[in-house]
Backbone:
């Protein structure tokens, strides 16, 4: 890459998707959240993990989650994705048929259709970490339940390096529902890239969504590229403003739950809300209800 590279870092607007516009929206949302819940505090343990996230952009906690609950969740996902007519099968194709021509399929509205995820959604330490990183009472933004296949198709979609435009600052928590080794399609993250972006000959990174693997590796260095393998029960965390991708599974399929926490609705759009059953919300302890401020109760 024989070009002039200028590095830009947070909070420089050039390091943020949509620049000044999103920074201003984020600042207003953050202040509003702090005013709405002025007494919110995080534990020292969560703050320590938040400091690691500040530095690297990602973290991993081993043996964190109850594997028996993960197994129950996995079985529920298998049931949904094996039935093309299941109302919670967003892709409307069975996984048996999808394997030949799709990279992955996923569950529709997981908060609503898969209550087995709620022990993860409302896990006290997960919430604590999100709040420590955001420095305010967090809220649920999005959720994905996705199965990625071993295929001969070229990499595409989220398997290409990208930076999520959801918010200038938010956290994703990843739960593999099966063990994922280097050939199982691990989440790949470029360390430090959540705050460090680039301009090449005045061309800002933000002017295109996907970037080629070789470009990102050459810019940041191979030592910054982390393949986050994990066992079932481990917890992965990342600010996906950093460059990342889900690598293509080579030997084994990967099923993964992704939970997003932010201080504002997804993409600052109050109409892009995920749904939750009102009956589930009504049974929540009062301390969890602020997390649902922008969910649609049905």
Residues:
């Amino acid at each position: 890459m024989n070009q002039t590279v200028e590095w830009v870092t947070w909070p420089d607007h050039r390091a943020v998707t949509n620049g000044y516009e999103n920074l201003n929206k984020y600042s207003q949302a953050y202040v509003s959240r702090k005013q709405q819940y002025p007494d919110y505090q995080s534990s020292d343990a969560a703050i320590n993990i938040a400091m690691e996230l500040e530095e690297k952009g990602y973290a991993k906690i081993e043996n964190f989650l109850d594997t028996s609950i993960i197994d129950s969740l996995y079985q529920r996902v298998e049931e949904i994705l094996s039935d093309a007519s299941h109302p919670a099968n967003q892709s409307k194709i069975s996984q048996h048929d999808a394997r030949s021509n799709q990279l992955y399929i996923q569950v529709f509205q997981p908060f609503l259709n898969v209550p087995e995820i709620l022990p993860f959604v409302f896990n006290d330490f997960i919430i604590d970490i999100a709040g420590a990183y955001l420095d305010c009472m967090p809220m649920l933004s999005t959720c994905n339940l996705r199965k990625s296949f071993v295929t001969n198709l070229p990499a595409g979609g989220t398997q290409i390096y990208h930076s999520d435009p959801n918010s200038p600052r938010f956290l994703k928590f990843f739960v593999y529902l099966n063990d994922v080794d280097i050939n199982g399609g691990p989440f790949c993250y470029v360390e430090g890239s959540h705050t460090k972006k680039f301009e090449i000959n005045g061309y800002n990174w933000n002017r295109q969504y996907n970037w080629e693997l070789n470009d990102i590796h050459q810019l940041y260095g191979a030592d910054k590229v982390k393949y986050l393998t994990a066992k079932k029960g481990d917890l992965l965390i990342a600010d996906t403003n950093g460059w990342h991708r889900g690598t293509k599974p080579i030997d084994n399929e990967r099923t993964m739950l992704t939970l997003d926490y932010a201080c504002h609705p997804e993409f600052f759009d109050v109409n892009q809300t995920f749904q939750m059953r009102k009956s589930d919300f009504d049974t929540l302890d009062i301390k969890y209800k602020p997390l649902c401020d922008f969910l649609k109760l049905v």
Remarks:
- Residues 19-36 form the longest helix (18 residues).
- The radius of gyration is 19 Å.
